[in-house]
User: Fold Histone H2A from Caerostris extrusa.
Amino acid sequence: MPFSKKRSPSGKPGSTPKRQKESEIRQTKRFPLQKIHELMQRKFNGTVKPEASVFLTAILEYLSVEILELSANVARGHNTNNGTIKLALEDTLEAIESDSEIRQLLDKVRKQ
Assistant:
């Protein structure tokens, strides 16, 4: 049967496996590809290939995740009271300053 119903790890048909739900959640938390493409077209007078928008979107997603992870690590070090993490702007700034590659990249952006 090529198109059988998906089964959960418990074997019940119709229930969604946990992994599938998590991947659906991850897919919804993406940068808006179409919006980025439109912004690039406006900036470069409509001469943007779709692949360029996909590439830029992937870069923005990657850098955002990296900075967020570093910020969370810094916040964990500062907030050790009850297990919850409060991420502050200062944590993000400290994370950027502590990572030489990201700091170097953002220094180049700031100078332009």
